[in-house]
């Protein structure tokens, strides 16, 4: 059964995302605290950027809506997007002296990873509603928004304006919750805007903890996935994916069904990037018209590839690589580390 | 025909408003520039406060949701509300050292009035979502929101949370646009939040200029009232009132009809408070089940009474006073100044 | 003995002050809490403004360095200064939308007075160093600075620049401590800047509590006036006046002497303005070449006149009025209320 | 001739500096724009930190007064200082969530170097006056302050408090101007505080451009070094060093003499760190009682060693290394790149 319908060839752009564009500085010497890391490698980062890079690698026609610092880091990001065939006509240059957000990663062990964030005066949060190009969204089958872009004005308003354009032009709207507490003023502020945005979205993806945060003013004492998903079907949602970490994800649909898919083994280097590659793989599948279970499997396999490598964005696989990974797993050639 | 239905006796509270509570300091020596005014008289002010006082004077059971400074001005406001039979259980005391917003009025002539505002660090804009009492809104037939309360966080989020509660409990939601540019960061920010709020409202009242501000990202080059009103009927609206100053107001309804009512003469002292008393009178009529035209007339007469006196809040009339004013106008006893 | 020497006729300006210009809104109905006060009368206020008005009333040639809001309140202030013969060539108009600081006074009894301050976004704190006219200070015998102007940037830097010009051109510098905690970020920040400024001043006036605040990082456990005064004689000070409220003031001089003067009875309406009128009267006496004791007496008598009336600025006496007050006291015609 | 006298063995600490502690991220792939640099190496940085490391390497007993972020970068800095024998008893941990300042270096060519700074919410600028330990300064022969620490409150006030303690306890005070425009609100604010601090200093080092900035409100149209230096001898200064880049430095002394020293060839990798190593070498020489010319030569040689290597802090030489460098230059073994 098809739960979501996408526009056809009349919309030339498969996928556009709005939000955070930043730099990951990944520790080269891993399995130690960052205090002892002496060198770092630079990658493009930020959840919606990673997903867009993933979608482009999978062969879709993509674009990005965001704002970059007017410095070497900003230019590196724009170059990288272009080299990955992502349209940057709506990637705006900041003129206020803002900086590029940074994420220094610390990989103590495959299961003990943390991030040191630089988000003060970040250029991506300075995108304004007027800078969002209605014409670009009008051409897109899918708009993806990411929760972090709701954290501050004027980026917050730019996202709501993008949602307004997407509704007007009939784009399928995907909300990747991507909740990062350090950018927000208060948990209650977060809950209010996440809910206002989610009301307008067709596909919502998040962890159980992220949905709990959104239910701050509601009554779901047992943290029931079913209650959580039901709420959104009263608004615009068609699919609600709730992730439970190692226990896997469940995709709820309007018919009340909870869909699960099998997972794959991986030789884990670090856990960063798992969610972004999963989102890219899953959405790719749904856009191909695959069954939800197959789409979820594809997302899981894409995630396995990313967490087995050093970077997030740069490790995003092609469709062939994902299919190949699944086959090798099915042949028993890959086992967990 | 009834365009809006209200809950019955199961909801004991007729009307609750959320937003600005402030102090008006009205020039005692009028018909001169404020530079030459030496003394001022203190009144409770703020558009939603004025409307609530108006509703209470008209005999309705009312309450207010807001935040007051922990000082003499704040205590004066709370006392005044209580003396006017307005429940203050959800009027919260600020604890951060914020001040009470002030509005010094300058009355150079009946048609040349201006306001000098003090809105920095105003307590009313510090109301948080957690402070909004769901139980109070659950008991109310009507929730009125006012645009000024959307101007800053956390008051902005408190209003959206109040809207969420009102939707959940089936209150009729009234949006008095009340756009005051000095509190807002940018016109585009304003447009985004006004639209997000208006989507959820049953009755929307504003001037043509206020609706123009909301249409910043839209296409209504001729400022057509009809196009403006139609948009909101696609969301939740039942009645959209567009005010054209001296040319009168038009109330649009979902059936496509534009309702007009006659106006009354007045011996104008100043124009302040006209909109607030109109809103109170009109909503009172609608809640009585009167026809729209009669409700609009009642609002106009209430406004005439207020603009003929020195204050806004303190001059709000009783129902008998409004009926009496209409009768005296009908008998030709009142003529314009 | 003469402790301070002033320039002669080659400097045409007797006195210039820099700092706060604001509005006092004095309760008309007194002897009650402000909650019950319904009307207020508007006066020019701010400690350095009051002192300058006092100096001008006493017959000196005066000017002011400050910044006013571009509104009715700002224009009222500039008009009032000009009408009181105070040169306003260096009273700058704000262009950022700042407001005029307000002080609502509450007079519960002659000894129980308080002030409700509005100091957010106050225009007077926006004076910049570049706006301070060196040529004006070059012509002045005396520069008076007031502690409140040190509370925020850029006014803080404007004061230090004014001090630099005064030092360069040989003006006698008077520091009226005038410490108002609500404008400051922290007590330790206050102490640092008060000390930096005081190092450059010839005459320092303050209460014991104000000097205690300045000694936050020092060792004066018994709050000894002698230790306090001695410190400043190692820098630039010639006279240090420490006020002990009802117990009177002591003027310390470099020779180690503590000078006291008798006080006068008064029919006290409120205590506001006592310090400002004392400062004006005292400085007037010192500039006349009077002995310190006589100057202090003159200041005390000027203060008695101000606290016996409703306003601060508007009640500043002429020299004849002060002399007359002293004579009437000496004849026993005035007794305390 | 000895221009500055230092305390003897009764003060166990030779040198303490206050101010910026940050991280340099130096491009590993150099001679290209930063956009094309993929990896960076982490070093401790910040001008006063570099100078202190330099002084410690030269064999002096040193300490630092500063504030570090409560994160991996902050802990790395504290560890590095301790490993370099710098006392960290007055290196305070931030508790507000501030971050460590970053400096990404771009080395396009030996003469075309630039820095990309992250200074928003930097922990070092949050040091408060109360956190400065008087007892530490009381034990120090020399206190070095650095202009960057004056850029923001409360670090600005902490520096003035440190100056107050240094004056009280007779430490020689060195001011390294180190002007970094990006941290400051305005050029006039900068000028005011640089001047206030410089009045209290015994040795002042800066570039001609830095002194020009300080003379914003003064009259030195020809940018005369002589006029510049003379001003400070009227306050506390004994030595004023004005640096003219490739044209060398001149050390002015109170007797009106301008001292110059010869320079040395170097195989330049980058120009960063030249000023810091010069300052360390020069101050070391002065503290040994060497003639000014010899001290300046020693500083120049130390600078040559640092600019010939990849880092600033980590490349600071020992005294033997500097002497050896001078000898090799004298033997003609080192020639410019």
TrEMBL record, chains A, B, C, D:
InterPro entries: Carboh/pur_kinase_PfkB_CS, DKG_kinase_firmi, Myo_inos_IolC, Myo_inos_IolC-like_sf, PfkB_Carbo_kinase, PfkB_dom, Ribokinase-like. Keywords: ATP-binding, Kinase, Nucleotide-binding, Transferase. PANTHER family: 5-DEHYDRO-2-DEOXYGLUCONOKINASE, HEXOKINASE FAMILY MEMBER. Catalyzes the phosphorylation of 5-dehydro-2-deoxy-D-gluconate (2-deoxy-5-keto-D-gluconate or DKG) to 6-phospho-5-dehydro-2-deoxy-D-gluconate (DKGP). One of its GO terms (biological process) is inositol catabolic process. It comes from the Bacteria. The lineage of its organism: Bacteria, Bacillati, Bacillota, Bacilli, Bacillales. PROSITE patterns: PFKB_KINASES_2. Its EC number is 2.7.1.92. Belongs to the carbohydrate kinase PfkB family. This is 5-dehydro-2-deoxygluconokinase.
């Amino acid at each position: 059964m098809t739960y979501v319908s996408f526009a056809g060839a009349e919309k030339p752009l498969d996928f556009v995302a709005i939000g955070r564009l930043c730099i990951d500085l990944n520790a080269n010497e891993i399995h130690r605290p960052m205090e002892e890391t002496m060198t770092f490698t630079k990658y493009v980062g930020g959840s919606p950027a990673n997903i867009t890079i993933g979608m482009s690698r999978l062969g879709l026609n993509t674009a990005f809506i965001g704002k970059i610092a007017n410095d070497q880091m900003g230019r590196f990001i724009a170059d990288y997007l272009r080299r990955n065939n992502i349209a940057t006509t709506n990637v705006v240059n900041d003129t206020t002296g803002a900086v590029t957000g940074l994420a220094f990663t610390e990989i103590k062990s495959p299961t003990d990873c943390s991030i040191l964030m630089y988000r003060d005066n970040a250029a991506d949060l300075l995108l304004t509603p007027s800078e969002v190009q209605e014409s670009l969204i009008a051409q897109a089958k899918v708009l993806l928004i990411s929760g972090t872009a709701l954290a501050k004005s004027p980026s917050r308003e730019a996202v709501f304006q993008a949602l307004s354009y997407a509704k007007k032009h009939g784009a399928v709207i995907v909300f990747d919750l991507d909740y990062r507490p350090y950018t927000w003023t208060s948990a209650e502020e977060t809950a209010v805007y996440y809910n206002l945005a989610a009301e307008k979205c067709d596909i919502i993806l998040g962890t159980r903890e992220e949905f709990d945060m959104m239910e701050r003013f509601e009554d779901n004492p047992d943290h029931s996935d079913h209650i959580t998903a039901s709420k959104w079907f009263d608004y615009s949602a068609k699919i609600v994916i709730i992730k439970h970490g190692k226990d896997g994800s469940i995709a709820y649909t309007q018919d009340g069904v909870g869909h699960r898919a099998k997972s794959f083994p991986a030789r884990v280097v670090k856990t960063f990037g798992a969610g972004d590659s999963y989102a890219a793989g899953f959405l790719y599948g749904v856009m191909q018209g695959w069954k939800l279970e197959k789409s979820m499997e594809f997302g899981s396999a894409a995630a396995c590839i990313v967490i087995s490598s050093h970077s997030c964005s740069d490790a995003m696989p092609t469709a062939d690589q994902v299919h190949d990974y699944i086959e090798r797993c099915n042949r028993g050639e890959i086992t967990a580390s």
